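Weekly puzzle thread! Below is a chain. First person to post its structure in token form gets bragging rights.
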Amino acid sequence: MRLTVTKTGSAVTYYIIRSVNRNGKRSSEVVKRLGTEDEIRKMGVEDPASWAREQLEIMNREEQKTPEKAIYLHPDKRIEPDQQNQFNVGYLFLKQLYYGLRLPQICKKIADRSGFEYNLDEILSRLVYGRILYPGSKLSCFEQSRTLLEQPHFELHQVYRALSVLSREMDFIQAELYKNSLDVLPRKTGVLYYDCTNYYFEIEDAEGLKQYGPSKEHRPNPIVEMGLFMDASGIPLAFCIHEGNKNEQVTLAPLEKQILSDFGHTKFVVCTDAGLASAANRKFNNIGERSFVTTQSVKTLSKDLKKWALDTDGWRLQGDNKVYSIADLADTEENRDKVFYKERLIDGWDDDRDVRFQQNLIVTFSLKFKLYQQSVRQRQIDRATAMINGADRHLDTTGMNDCKRFIRRTSVTENGEIAEKKIYSLNEEVIAKEAQYDGFYAVCTNLLDDVSTIIQVNRGRWEIEESFRIMKTEFSARPVYLKRDDRIRAHFLTCFISLLIYRLLEHRLPGQYTCSDIIQTLRQMNLTQIGKEGFIPSYTRTALTDALHDFAGFSTDFEFIPRTSANKLCVQARQLRK
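Winning reply:
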């Protein structure tokens, strides 16, 4: 029903009408005459137009009310064999964002120029929903897609064919996703965060993308490497996949060039950790309107700069002109909340471009950070001590952050010759050497902003680490269950799209819910089919399910959902509320 207004002379009359179909022809009929403006005002109404709209809303709500319906179930009648009776509707909230990003239109553009017959949109959407709800192999995803309220209409072999197409169109899809995402959520692209992670494959022989390289999980397996750009809101922007033996430092510039060309960005700050802070990357972002903020290891500074950084004198507090010494800083709650800093300009020259290259080195000291580092190291020392006392067989192997770096190994000599026996003890020199860096943190930048702004920019890096954690744990991005390089790339593309959709959903919900809360709730939002009549919810209604329904603009938590209403839910999920 809808409201219509007619004017006859000076009289304005309000009607509620509805569309009807008579003998195949569409026309309208009057449902109710609300009256003229004068008649309505005589009822004590000051604003006839607003009152008329309210009456329309009341009548629409009343019309949508479904009368109670008796459903007869027979205790002696068995259910039909092989009949599925439970369906997930949690994916409908993901579907809204999938449609909001206009992925069906992206898939159609690809299909129009590729000429294949299967439905790429249907396959991609199920791969994305499955990665969030039921992560597993492509076979598992294909089977699990039958548990959704909307049943799939594709075959398993078409899934693998679609992966090759998605791999080929990866750059196009990322560029289109960025442009479309601007209509879903304002993007904060003034600061971009970049980081890399790797995924190992449980194989022995390296091939293609799967190569031996430095594993962040210290596993002796071939790996592939993912580079990820994220904006200041924590929303993924772009990604790339490289061979596992490729130096992560050289992956930044190519992906950044892609953002410059495909996304139309020219002005932004790139924030990275120390592992990506090569001189080449810094100089690359020292031209045009680009800038950088990168973590700087105090341990790797030159001798003079390290001496300056660790000097207990010459420290400042933001908004305070006083100069402080941190030598005898008392451990109080007030002091724990303070972040002292010092900064120094480092002059340099970019020989490739023949321009000046200046960096501002900012070193901070925090008593809270110092106490945290001390507690972490003490736990590692305790583990090292336990290993020594337990005569661990692998005491001679160690890594950069392994607690065994604190163990001294002394070979025993017998008759002037080195015997096989070794004596293990705590290496107090290594412990003391590390302790001198407790509480210190440094960044390098070519920005001219105040220190607090630069520190705040650098703090945002935690969200990209969180994104990697979500992909590896909640989305189970590995094991990959694929061998061909193009399909491996497509697999990580679906992980990227899933992360993008999840992060957008996260921004649409109140902030008190964790990633695990949201995903587990979506997984459990099932409807149970009651004969041919309709469905009943078989999940617990919570504050989070209410928040999901508020965001989506539709509800799946009525006591009974007729089959026609369930079909409407699938249609409503295609419209993203702004």
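Puzzle host: Confirmed. Bonus trivia for everyone else. The first strand starts at residue 2 and ends at 8.
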